[in-house]
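Q:
Got a chain?
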Amino acid sequence: MRFEVAKLTVYLAHAYDTEKDTETTRFRISSTTLRNISLRTRLRDTFIIEWQDALSYEGWAVFPIGEHFGLIRTNVIAGWRRISSRRVADKVEGLRAGDQSVMTEISSDLGHGRRKRAKRKRVA
C-alpha cells in the first residue's frame, strides 16, 4: 500500500499543477491529508518510513514538520549550495578533545539564532 500512497501523493501534486497551470517543486501536506489518502486512521512510524522510501523512488524527499510533511523534488536540491564541514573542523576537534567551551563559543557566535545577514555588494 505504501507505493500506492506514494504514487497518489505525487498525483496530488500533479492534479494541483494541472489545475493551477504550474510546476510544483515543493509542497506540504497535513497528517490529516496523508491519513485520508492512505485510508488510515493512524499513521504509524513504520508506514511513514516506508512512504518516505517509496516517494524517494518517485523523485521526492519528505521531512516531517510538526503535524505536516514537507516534500521537495530531489532534482531541485542538486543545484543548491553545498557546505562542507571544513569550516568547523577546529570546533569538531575541540569537541572530540572534550572541550565543552566550544559549544558556548558557537552559541555566542550565533547570537542565539538572531544573527543578521551581511549585505552583499552588487557587481555591475
